[in-house]
Design a protein that fits this description.
The mean pLDDT is about 95. The chain has helices spanning about 10-20, 35-45, 90-105, 125-130, 150-155, 175-185, 190-195, 245-260, 275-280, and strands spanning about 1-5, 55-60, 60-70, 75-85, 110-115, 135, 140-145, 165-170, 200-210, 210-220, 225-235, 265-270, 285-290, 295. The chain is α+β, with helices and mostly antiparallel strands and about 300 residues long. It contains 9 helices and 14 strands.
């Protein structure tokens, strides 16, 4: 068995194989889509080096495993995209070889590692535990459709008191959004400056009460055309006042109307009952639970911000 970077002519076939795996909760990895076309695009655009960071285990001419090596500097973390192992292949042998090769090509500054399997994954938790990873609190993946009548969202996006206005974040508000994000979500996978930076496929909406920014929502259109709520943050002094509900409804409407997303999804910590009630009241339903396995760092000390 050889480990090497995937070739471009292999990507589409591998993406179809991964799509089949992703449909099975016992093999599902949170970082990947379930749509083969979106998976192929994601693999080619994997940060920071594209296909050079997509490793395959090859037995003869057959791909029997795949691992994406997505890493960053802030935080100094690798998010392992996989590993995926073909039916009939030895899980431990293939997964261990892919992980060893992936670690060998990481920059020295990357000291944090994370897997993101479905809670029902058949074998990745055992592999992660054997390699020194520890399990932390699961997050629920919640989904709602954005087709048809959206009057419920339009109503929820209006502040009953008439004090809140939700608008796209402007350049001058970027430092405010960045500071609020870093205060609410310290140590998370994306810094405030990254969240507040402009992108064609993403937007940040802010809630304002007069001149004061009381909260924000970061949303994006994913490769499979579905919408994603990346972050919802409400300033401590404005919580429990309905700001979060207005922002979520406004964010969903923006995804439907500006990006033509057919649905929207998000993740929320399993224990964050307040946030889950908020999302469920706006039509979200649970699709699955994702259990993070981490090595070299922990987010267990962070309290989930309360829903508002």
């Amino acid at each position: 068995m050889d480990i090497r970077p995937i070739r471009d002519d292999e990507v589409d076939g591998a993406a179809r194989w991964l799509g089949d795996q992703q449909a099975d909760p016992a093999r599902h990895i949170a970082s990947e889509s379930m749509d083969p076309a979106a998976i192929a695009t994601d693999l080619r655009q994997l940060e920071p080096r594209g296909l050079e960071d997509v490793l395959v285990a090859v037995d003869g001419d057959t791909i029997v495993g795949l691992l994406g090596v997505e890493h960053d500097t802030d935080p100094p973390r690798v998010w392992w995209r996989g590993p995926f192992v073909a039916d009939g292949a030895d899980v431990d042998t293939v997964a261990d070889a892919l992980l060893a090769a992936g670690r060998a090509q990481l920059p020295d500054h990357v000291t944090e590692e994370e897997f993101g399997p479905d809670e029902r994954h058949a074998w990745l938790p055992a592999v992660a535990g054997r390699h020194g990873f520890h399990a932390e609190e699961a997050s629920a993946v919640l989904v709602r459709g954005l087709g048809g009548d959206l009057d419920d969202l339009r109503g929820a996006a209006e502040d009953p008191a008439g004090e809140l206005v939700v608008v796209p974040a402007t350049t001058d508000l970027a430092p405010v959004v960045a500071g609020l994000h870093d205060a609410i979500f310290p140590g998370t996978h994306a810094s405030g400056s990254r969240i507040a930076s402009a992108r064609d496929d993403a937007a940040v909406l802010v809630a304002r009460s007069g001149a004061e920014v009381t909260g924000y929502i970061a949303i994006e259109r994913q490769q499979d055309a579905t919408g994603y709520i990346d972050y919802l943050g409400v300033s401590p002094g404005a919580r429990r006042g309905g700001v979060g509900r207005v922002l979520v409804a406004a964010g969903c409407l923006h995804l439907a109307e500006a990006y033509a997303c057919p649905s929207v999804n998000l993740t929320v910590r399993e224990s964050n009952r307040g946030a889950r009630r908020l999302y469920e009241s706006l039509g979200f339903v649970q699709e699955r639970l994702i259990r993070p396995w981490r090595r070299g760092f922990s987010l267990a000390h962070l309290d989930s911000p309360p829903a508002s």
